[in-house]
Amino acid sequence: MLIKRKFDIFTAGLIVIFIVVFCLTIFANMYLQKKNEELANISKELDFLTGLRVSLHNLEGLLDEYMRNPGRQEATEAEDAFDEFYRLVGKTRSFNMDEDELEMIGYLRSNMQRFSTWITNILSPNFEGSRTAFYQSIKLELFKEVKERIERHWNEDMEKIEAAKLRAGVAEQRVVMVYFITLILLGVVIYLVRRTVRRQILLPLMNLNTSSRRMAEGDLENPIEINSSDELSQLAENFNRMAYTIKQKIEGLEEAYQREQRVVRELAILNEFMGDISNDTEMTDMLRRFAERASDLLKADGAAVVVRDLEGEEFFVSTHE
């Protein structure tokens, strides 16, 4: 079960790496989203202050124009400008503001009715005598104090948005770096997995396939060598034992075959010798043919026959005579 254990370890490792990469990606996206939301909030805040700034500046210019040249058209334009400023102050905001800005907006909202009354009195012919006093009051409180606060907050937000852009750029660089590191990590993991699978599984299987094919062709001298401690190594060892057993059986069969062939040759020699004896052949010729036949059957370079009678005399016949 070692291969299965290795496979389980590889699977668990891949799952862990996938979780790490997934968490890194989520964290990077959340970080970048936070910086982008911060930038978007400051941009909306700056747009709001810009609208107040422009509207207030337009209202101031139209009131100045009306004070120099009172007329119905100038009054209507000034009323429209104040209505626009009033709408901006009372507009529901979808962004966050700091405490000082919220306090300023609260001050404007709580005093818009008073400012509206002053504007109405300035533009009304019924208050022509006190028009200048109302104009000076609204100029001092709205066009000077509030306008200065709006200008200050607008400048602060311009600095904030530049800093937010810088932080968003840094966040994007960090996210790109995280993605780059993640890609490198995945590449290294894929390489290590591929290398490990190739060394631990593919190469032993290829070696086992080549060696088993060589065994099937009759080469039983070279054992299979697999440097591992798993089922593939056990399989290779079983193949080697099988090859050794087959080799031993083949050698035993060859030895038995050689013994049988020797017995057959000996029986053939004896049979021919007995035939020569039964034919009353000259003893010398018979022994010479016997020696020659024995040499042929035994595949020897030569043969000799020595005969000793009862009195101890020897008779020698050789194929080289």
Task: Looking at this protein, list some descriptive labels.
6 helices, Four Helix Bundle (Hemerythrin (Met), subunit A), 81% helix, 321 residues, rod-shaped, mainly alpha, 2 domains, two-stranded antiparallel sheet
User: Which class of the largest domain in CATH terms?
Assistant: Mainly Alpha
- State the assembly state of the protein chains: single chain
| Overall shape | rod-shaped
Distance between the termini: 75 Å
How much helicity do the residues have?
over 70%
Average pLDDT, to the nearest integer? 76
What's the CATH architecture name of the largest domain?
Up-down Bundle
Largest sheet: 2 strands, antiparallel
Rounded radius of gyration (Å): 57 Å
Label the structural class: mainly alpha
Number of domains: 2
Number of helices: 6
What report would you give on this structure?
By secondary structure, the chain is mostly helical. Helix content is 81%, strand content 3%. The chain folds into two domains: 2-194, Up-down Bundle (Four Helix Bundle (Hemerythrin (Met), subunit A)); 233-318. Strands 1-2 form a two-stranded antiparallel ribbon. Strand 1 (304-308) and strand 2 (314-318) form a beta hairpin.
